[in-house]
Amino acid sequence: MGSSGINAEYMGSSGINAEYIAEYMGSSGINAEYMGSSVTTQSTWEAVSLGGGTGSGLGTLLLLKIRDAYPDRLTKTYSVYPSPKVSDTVVEPYNAILATHQLLENADQTYVIDNEALYSISVNLLKEDHPTYSFLNYMI
With 70 as the cut, is the pLDDT of residue 33 above it? Predict the structure, then answer.
């Protein structure tokens, strides 16, 4: 497994191969037989962190591909926005701003989750001294 949890065959020389993933979505992951049937899927949803390059870039690309392939389906996202107190990268606000434009264009509903508020809830209410990212993801 790669660092982002994606098998090495999905990775290109410069990172994640988005075209391969989009092709995979069309052939087996989100296929037309499943999405096109009138008795099954009415909407799709995506949970994405907008601070990192994978979440903001690949997440919005997948959202765009879903919107292009299935314009009659509702799309919603659960988007975690970065916070300066929890952030470990300088470019997180920049990534979030670029991804926000894509969310406005391609998502029917977006639920905004503040990373700092999530951290504060885990420390103050749930009494976690040092919450991990996996614990914060579990809370969502």
Answer: no
Q: How many CA atoms lie within 13 A of 137 on its CB side?
A: 6
How many angstroms separate the CA atoms of 118 and 94, rounded? 20
Rounded Cα–Cα distance for residues 127 and 56 (Å): 30
Max CA-CA distance within the chain?
48
> What letters, b where the CB count within 10 A reaches 16 and e where it falls short, cover 18-36?
eeebbeebeeeebeeeebe
Grouping H, G, I as helix, E, B as strand and the rest as coil, residue 45 is strand
107, 79, 106: which is closest to 95 by C-alpha?
79
The closest of 107, 105, 112 to 49, measured between CA atoms, is 112
CA dist 60 and 110 (Å) reads 12
> Does residue 52 carry a pLDDT above 90?
no
Using the predicted structure, report yes or no on whether residue 61 has a pLDDT greater than 50: yes
Residue where the block lists tokens 């982002």: 4
In this model, does residue 125 exceed pLDDT 90?
yes
pLDDT reported for residue 124: 93
Residue with tokens 């994978």: 54
Amino acid of residue 48? V
